[in-house]
């Protein structure tokens, strides 16, 4: 009877440990492009890209909530990395100071970075904690924020701000169904 109880306890511990998979990983230096996407705009034309997204903002990555995705992602919610971001400056749209955003792509458990690619462009990386970047994001139907398919991982500086300010001032609007993020200032102030 003791042997059966010991086996049952051991099996229970293994199942608990198996369910405690890590939510974050560290990049091992390897990058693979796991999905080829087709965009409705020319993703190399930043005026069109800014016209497609709902929000453009300067932000600092406060933390990585999760960045581990399956080894064989299928372009679903399972392949999203999530980041806590402090909004330092809104360029298009008005987001609250603290937000959470997700992005397609991430790291496998062994640290291989998995990113998107298109016929014209490949993603250049993932946001890093402490990094300040200019982000572009789509509001989703549930109010969450999804970062753009291609991340501009150039460090933030004045010339990058001027570049994106020009894109926002001269954007080429794209007609599509739009949503408002739960982090949008207009929603937050109307609830108070």
List the strand order in the largest sheet: 2-3-4-8-7
How can the largest sheet be summarized?
Answer: 5 strands, mixed, barrel
Q: Give the overall form.
A: globular
Rg from Cα: 20 Å
**Gap between N and C termini:** 61 Å
Order of helices and strands: HEHEEEEEEEHH
What value does the average pLDDT take? 87
Q: Tell me the structural class.
A: alpha+beta
Tell me what portion of residues adopts beta-strand conformation: 25-35%
Unreliable stretches covering 5 or more consecutive residues? 3-20
Number of strand segments: 8
Q: Helical segment tally?
A: 4
Overall helicity: 10-25%
Can you describe what's shown?
With 192 residues, this protein is α+β, with helices and mostly antiparallel strands. Mean pLDDT is 87; it is low at 3-20. α2 (46-52) crosses α3. It has a five-stranded mixed β-barrel with strand order 2-3-4-8-7. Strands 1-6-5 form a three-stranded mixed β-sheet, with no helix packed on it. It has four helices and eight strands. A hairpin with a 5-residue loop joins β3 (80-92) and β4 (98-104).
Give the structure's gist in a few sentences.
The protein has 192 residues and is an alpha+beta fold.
Q: What keyword list fits this structure?
A:
alpha+beta; five-stranded mixed beta barrel; three-stranded mixed β-sheet; 8 strands; globular
Give the helices and strands, then pairings.
Layout (H helix, E strand, L loop, with lengths): L1 H18 L11 E6 L9 H7 L2 E12 L13 E13 L5 E7 L1 E2 L5 E5 L14 E8 L5 E3 L10 H12 L15 H7 L1
Parallel strand pairs: 1-6, 4-8
Antiparallel strand pairs: 2-3, 2-7, 3-4, 5-6, 7-8
Helix pairs in contact: 2-3
